[in-house]
Amino acid sequence: MSFSESSKAFAYPVLVADIGGTNARFALVDGPDAPTRMCGKTATADHIDICSAIRGTVFPETDIKPRTAIIAVAGPVTGDKIPLTNAAWVIEPLKMISELGLEEVVVLNDFEAQALALPGYSGEDVEQVGSGAVRPASTKFVLGPGTGLGAAAMIHAAATWIPVPGEGGHVELGPVTKEDFEIWPHIERVGGRVGAEQLLSGTGLPRLARAVAEWMQAERQLETPASITEAAEENDAVAVKTLEVFARALGRVAGDCALTVLSRGGVYLTGGVTPRITRFLTDGNFRAAFEAKAPHEALMAKIPTFIVRHPNPALEGLASFARTPDAFAVDMQGRQWTGPVSANDN
Q1: What 3-state class would DSSP assign to 153?
Q2: How far is CA 88 from the centre of its chain?
Q3: Of the candidates 342, 324, 319, which has an alpha carbon nearest to the alpha carbon of residue 39?
Q4: Does 180 have pLDDT greater than 90?
Q5: First to last CA, the chain
Q6: Is the peptide bond between 304 and the residue preceding it cis, with omega within 30 degrees of 0?
Q7: Residue 320 counted as domain residue
């Protein structure tokens, strides 16, 4: 086995995989001009490892076995054994090459994959929230409240898209409005601080709901994200206020991210929480908080914000990379493994 620092062409078919804590999603890209071919979803708990999942989910869907695998995982890629944050799997690229007959395996961060999808969105893939227009060939940003709060930038420089994953979801989140200043003293601190992910995520929503209930002096037990969104649909006062504060705070963090990298190409919201709180993101408060960045309100009004409606954004990002690797500058150092070259390539 050999390790290659970079790759400018992949051997097709390319298997792309989005590996989460609960589910693994797979698709195939048969060639540089081929559409993304979905191969199904499976629960990680149903398989001992990724090799088992691919054999059971992907192989029955194709006559031609994949030669390359490009995988997105939640968390950093370090070494030849990559444990998942919220599942029992350990991704072992060399084992995948040996057991599945692959020639190459690439493992990227999940929000790097989300960023790779941004330049290709069009039409119904996204829903715009508020004013602004995309400036072509300009930096974009993706922010995803899900289990946690993921973040990544897609920088455009030297005619190339450069995905930059980071930990923007852990920036500080302080009070701004009079209502915020009344609620914030009730928020549970983690590590002595209030970080964005501590509120703006599936795990953070119940923490925010408890603070809002205390502030409102209401006896409410909303301990799961689903219970909060469901209660809000019934116009429960605590749940509605929780999601109003959530959307306003998400707008502020999204605005901070936009200013940090001057994302004139737009800010895009993904993640499992986003589609469940659409009415709170489109009622004007999210966008008002996004733009309220004095003295830069005029600039912020020009930067568009979007809800991503594409059903599989990470897979689509990996597929875009598989089709046109030359369009992206992706750091492969320590994240690419190769096996013996196929006899077809000799």
Answers
A1: strand
A2: 21
A3: 319
A4: yes
A5: 17
A6: no
A7: no
Domain at 182, CATH number: 3.40.367.20
Note whether 170 and 211 are same-domain residues.
yes
66 and 133 part of one domain = no
Question: In whole angstroms, what is the distance from residue 178 CA to residue 82 CA?
Answer: 45
Do 98 and 198 fall within a single domain?
no
Give 199-256 pLDDT, tens digit per residue. Answer: 999 999 999 999 999 999 998 889 999 999 999 999 999 999 999 999 999 999 999 9
Domain range spanning residue 199? 122-308
Give the DSSP per-residue string, 101-149.
--SEEEEEEHHHHHHHHGGG--GGGEEEESS--PPTT--EEEEEESSSE
Cis amide prior to 35 (ω within 30 degrees) = no
Question: Tokens at residue 67, please?
Answer: 């030669």
For the domain that residue 32 is a member of, what is the CATH number? 3.30.420.40
Annotated binding site: 17-22
pLDDT of 5 strictly over 70: no
Question: Which residues fall in the annotated binding site for ATP?
Answer: 17-22
Residues 70 and 144 in one domain: no
Distance CA 215, CA 220 (A): 12
